[in-house]
Amino acid sequence: MSRYTASLPLFEPQGCRGPLCNYYRTLFPIEWEVGCRSSGLRVSVPERTLFNVSTPPGLRWLVSPHDQRFMKAAALHDHLLAQGWDRLTAGAVFAEALRADRVPSPLRLVMWLAVSLYKWR
Questions:
Q1: pTM here?
Q2: Cβ contacts of residue 52 below 8 Å, gap of 6+?
Q3: Residues with Cβ < 8 Å from 70, sequence gap 6 or more?
Q4: For the segment 4-54, what is each residue's pLDDT rounded down to a tens digit?
Q5: Nearest to residue 45, comparing CAs of 80, 85, 70?
Q6: Which end of the chain has fewer CB atoms within 10 angstroms, the N or the C?
Q7: Rounded to whole angstroms, how far apart are CA atoms 96 and 30?
Q8: Are 99 and 91 in contact (CB under 8 A)?
Q9: What is the mean pLDDT of residues 62-73?
Q10: pLDDT tens column, 77-103
C-alpha cells in the first residue's frame, strides 16, 4: 500500500476564488511514497502549495470540501496534475491517499471517479 512518509501536514484556507471557497495552501511539505513500501518512487508536495478541494454544490452533503480527511489527497492530486501526470494516474494516487486517511471505500470510489473522469477526452 502507498503511504505518507512524514507526519500530518497542516493547511491554511486561502479564501474564495470564484463562486467556491475551497482553496487551501500547504504549510509543510507532504511526502508520499507511491506503490508498495520501499518502492523508491516518492512524490513531494512543496510547502506553500496552493490546491483546492472541488465539490459540486449538490454533493456537499456527501463530500464537504473542508473535511480534513481529503486535504492531503487533494494537495497531492493537484500537485501531480501540475507536474504533468495524466488524470487517471493522478486519480489512482489520489484514491490511495484517501485510503491511507481511512476514507470509506464507497466514498473513495465516488471521489476517484470524479477526479479521474473530470475533463475526460
A1: 0.83
A2: 17, 20, 22, 23, 24, 65, 74, 78
A3: 53, 63, 98, 101, 103, 111
A4: 655 555 777 776 655 566 788 998 888 888 877 777 888 999 999 999 887
A5: 80
A6: C
A7: 14
A8: no
A9: 84
A10: 999 999 999 999 999 999 999 999 999
Copy the grid coordinates of residue 45.
508536495
User: What is the average per-residue pLDDT within 62-91?
Assistant: 90
Which amino acid belongs to residue 79?
Answer: H
Chain position carrying cell 508536495: 45
What are the DSSP calls for the chain, one per residue?
--EE-SSPP-EEE---BTTB--EEEESS-EEEE-SSTT-S-EEEEPTT-EEE----GGGTTT--TT-HHHHHHHHHHHHHHHTT--HHHHHHHHHHHHHHTT--HHHHHHHHHHHHHTT--
Interatomic CA distance for residues 65 and 53, integer angstroms: 5
